[in-house]
Amino acid sequence: MLQAATRQDGDALVKVRGTLRDLVGEENADLRLERRHRERTEAWERFAAAHPKRVGAMHGAVDDWAASARLREAARTEVARVFWLLRAFVLRAGEVTGHGEDLFFLPVEEILRVLDGDEEPLAAVPSRRAAYALYRGLPTCPTLIRGEFDPAVWAADPDRRADLYDAHATAAPSDTVSGSPASGGVVEGAARVVADVAEGESLRPGEILVTTVTNIGWTPLFTRISAIVTDVGANLSHASIVARELGIPAVVGCGNATTRIRTGDRIRVDGGRGTVDVVGTAARSASEPAQGPSGGSGPDGHSVG
Going by C-beta distance under 8 Å and a sequence separation of 6 or more, which residues neighbour residue 28? Predict the structure, then answer.
């Protein structure tokens, strides 16, 4: 078990090194941040000139919101630390008992029973592992579900949304993908639909990243993209914050961007209006499967996608 964990850590290290290697020669993130700092300073100067009596209150409001955002991210960091600790506990328990990753399919109460020598809870592992494999092969279920929901039928729908499922909805999908305007600016370029951060090495400089959702592990990829579009997210999501920091347009919370847009499509992203228009489609093959990132959780409890 220890050898398996060491191998996983080694694979992760290889991916990290590959990401760093791919970043060599691209625009330095510090340069983008410096440019954004100048733009922010100039914006405050314009606001102070136009509204001299309101600038103090506005500074206070922005500072309060910034402090709240930092607290939110600090809380998320602590949650990640707790999950890492739990993962280390289960790995060690699997090593001690000789049952390895099977223990990831047991709640903590059953893990403690196995540690005490009671192996009865292990009888449920095969069925739980089979269910895990089945659902891991499906896209991440929508955040909000209304009505009867069959995940397999939903996953086969080429127009499915990642944010919402309404069994009673009858409206046809719009030609325009829309979401929350998270970072201003208009960019037109080639789309790159990425299911998992590990596929980020396929991103070419200047492409527009289209994915389900991002987290801190995706941050290095933002230095090479010209815009980002996500299925899930709001104005304080990871994609929104990093896009604003680096000055690239972002439209988040679209729901169906990864099913309506294909890699190679030429799209126009308007981060101020919250719209994404396909202005040119990539060539499709007759056998091309429905595209769209799938997600789920690994046996270590960490989210994927």
Answer: 223
Residues 6+ apart with CB under 8 A from 146: 164, 165, 166, 167, 168
What is d(CA 17, CA 142) in angstroms, rounded to the nearest whole number? 33
Which residue would you say has higher pLDDT here, 34 or 190? 190
Nearest Cα residue to 177 out of 196, 156, 163, 197? 163
Helices then strands, counting H and E runs in the chain, come out as 8, 12
Q: Which residue has the higher pLDDT, 4 or 41?
A: 41
The pLDDT, as a whole number, for residue 293 is 47
CA distance 260 to 175: 9
Residue numbers annotated as active site: 238
Q: How far apart are CA 109 and CA 10, in angstroms?
A: 31
Q: For residues 56 and 83, what is the distance between their CA atoms, to the nearest angstrom?
A: 41
- 3-class DSSP state of 155: helix
88's tokens? 């280390």
Contacts for 58 with CB less than 8 Å, ≥ 6 apart: 47, 51
Between CA 271 and CA 182 the distance in angstroms is: 6
Q: Name residue 189's beta-bridge partners.
A: 267
Q: What distance in Å separates the CA atoms of residue 293 and residue 305, rounded to the nearest whole number?
A: 7
Q: How confident is the model at residue 24 (pLDDT cuts 50, 70, 90)?
A: low
Place of tokens 């995940």: 151
Q: Are strands 186-193 and 266-270 parallel, antiparallel or unpaired?
A: antiparallel
Pairing outcome for strands 186-193 and 208-211: parallel
Of the candidates 197, 294, 208, the residue with the CA atom closest to the CA atom of residue 249: 208
Nearest of 136, 139, 114, 137 to residue 125 by alpha carbon: 114
Q: Could you tell me which residues are beta bridge partners of residue 280?
A: 266
| pTM, 2 dp | 0.65
> What one-character DSSP code corresponds to residue 203?
P
